[in-house]
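Hi F.,

I've been meaning to write this up properly since the lab meeting, where we talked about keeping a consistent format for the predictions we share between groups. The idea is simple: the sequence comes first, exactly as it goes in, then the structure tokens exactly as they come out, then a line or two of notes. No screenshots and no reformatting. I'm using this chain as the first example so we have something concrete to point to.
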Amino acid sequence: MSSSHRIGVAQGTALFIGAVLGGGVLVLPAVAAREAGPASLVAWAALVAFCVPVAAVFAMLGTRYPDGGGVATYAAKAFGPKASAPVGWLFYFAVPAGVTSAAIVGGAYVADALGGGHAMSLAVAALLLLAAFVSNGLGLRLSGGLQLTLVGLLAALLVVAIVIAAPDSRAENLTPFAPHGWLAVGHAATLLFFGFSGWEAVSHLSGEFSDPRRQLPVVTALTVVTIAVLYLGIAFTSVAVLGSEPDRPGVPLTLLLERGIGKWAGAVTAVAAALLTFATANSYIAGGSRLGAALGRDGDLPVWLAQGNRAGEVPRRSLAVLATLVTALLATAAITGIGLDPIMSAASACFVAVYIAGLSAAVKLLRTSRFGRPAALVSLAVVLVVFCFYGAYLLLPLALVAGATVFRRLAAPSPPVPPSPPVPTRHPADHADHVDPRVDHAATD
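Output, unedited:
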């Protein structure tokens, strides 16, 4: 496959940013401020700091083991081939729930701006997801280029919002700094945690770079810096300009933009939500589809899915499976009226389980690295604490691990039966010759 079909630093950075910078940037600043007041900024800073070792660990693993299997490959390298299927299933079958919940959030913003209701939000979500699947179906070269354009526009929009609103910052909005106590900062950090996920998704793109060893560290560093600037900028400006009262509106980006573009702010926010949704779905689908092909290649899913598992190829069969699951979820949401929280929580529980697997693998695989192993240990400890808060949703990752284990056992080929030794044929005239049945004559000939 020609290297022209691989992705470079610019497209890779756009895909990475798209996976991490989701629709949470629209609502999380308000949610965290209501929880912890101005001290929520400490939670934002802590999560940015936490992002550094996590990103570095996944970059190290990606440079050493560039493959579409991503975290599943790392687990197999660390703990043996049997670890690949459970980890792969955790991510692959959580992708439809993750991108569907993200699309519904984006669809809700667009529907609200247009005066529509729940039906319109689902319709917009379906269109956004269709666009993401079509984009990936046409190949990463087009998908990555489109992602680069969208992420550039989104970053510019967020910077404009920060610059427009910053002059209206007021010192009194930062006092009292911790009105709900310092324990509330921990609660806010838990809420913000998933605004910094996505590294597990882009691990499946490591094999798509033309030179992973050189490019991945650069892409990771650019992503961390961009995410830090945008998240901290929006969070600080939101608190300093809008305050942190419990009854403050829930979409700070709209209110910040109103200071510069007036009544058009709502429409611009809706467009931003749609673009953020597409960018996130585009990245997760790109990673998930390649994981599915890798799992088919390795026998962890039906071999039919292995089509497109080589770098530079389009895994269309895996894309078709993900699209089918997404369609089923959207139809279920439309028919039953199921809320967003269950879908999002179910996906998050699986993604955090993938983090645990990846970081556990890193502890073993990076044992000779002065920075990698300590970074993996610290990150793993934090993620394990967060994982405990999922309650009943932990049943889903457990069910997927069980399903993967059963599939591997059923799909594994039976060990070959050794051929029976040939029965010596004797002429009737030789009936007096004695043949000892304890001796394998075929082996001693």
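Notes:
The CA atoms of residues 78 and 444 lie 43 Å apart.
Residues 414-420, 425-445 have pLDDT under 50 and may be disordered.

If this format works for you, I'll send the rest the same way.

G.
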